[in-house]
């Protein structure tokens, strides 16, 4: 599963990518290809379990992050959306708009001035027009093909495409349209841009720290669509934080008056947007967070560990993380009734500690 960082040139997108991936690259260099890194998801629960079990290895859950080359001014003094850019965006399962909210005369904005709402609406409008053009062409082709072939599959697709087209024509992104599982499955191969889950990262400078909450609320209140997660962050500060040891990070954040690093929140939000959650396996050899989709059964979760566990699944021993921390050991969890055996249809919860019984 992968998430794409999308934004205009000089938005701080590559600085954020460098921070997430712990890589060093010059943000001022204009890349022609998307950079890709596998990024660890911070999880305090896994950290605590590792502290308790002292394993040889700790393995965090991960996602792939794509740094899509930023949109820049073209020769006619306008920012143009290219097919190469759209194709890069389509390759992702969810999107994070990285939006500039800082002023710096030494770094020109490609649209002439800093205006976060304008930049967000620009991206949304361009993606909406791209979807609308695709749906219009698909609708026209479907109508012809249905008349010729009478194919039942095409007949089922036609009303779904019509519904999506009407929604986009009304200037509403497809993520705001109610679609059932069958409809989503039917649309999955088309990689529609406004159907992808979206969050917004607002990049402020350090001068905005005292009023960042107020400024973020102003921006959100001006947006057409207000249901997407919006996370304020400070790209340069986050990059400096990522280079420090944990104790030094706390001192650094206290000096700047920052209560929490936005980095962990951005990654957690990305994880949640993709419909993912984690369960844990623990022991002396390894403590690991395993990534699964929400509503996975115990048998499906077992299959993520190893295909043999899926095929030869008997039972899952389950204790939720909160119960384990509350009671302090597996034995005490058993005594209290928090430890239990679950069958293959059990729906795994985020934070379950699981051991698989198999033959």
UniProtKB/TrEMBL annotation:
It comes from the Bacteria. The keyword Transmembrane does not apply. GO terms for cellular component: cytoplasm. InterPro entries: ATPase_YchF/OLA1, Beta-grasp_dom_sf, GTP-bd, P-loop_NTPase, TGS-like, TGS-like_dom_sf, YchF_C. GO terms for molecular function: ATP binding; ATP hydrolysis activity; GTP binding; metal ion binding. It holds the Pfam family YchF-GTPase_C. Residues 2-103 form the G domain. Residues 125-152 form a coiled coil. Keywords: ATP-binding, Coiled coil, Metal-binding, Nucleotide-binding. This is GTP-dependent nucleic acid-binding protein EngD.
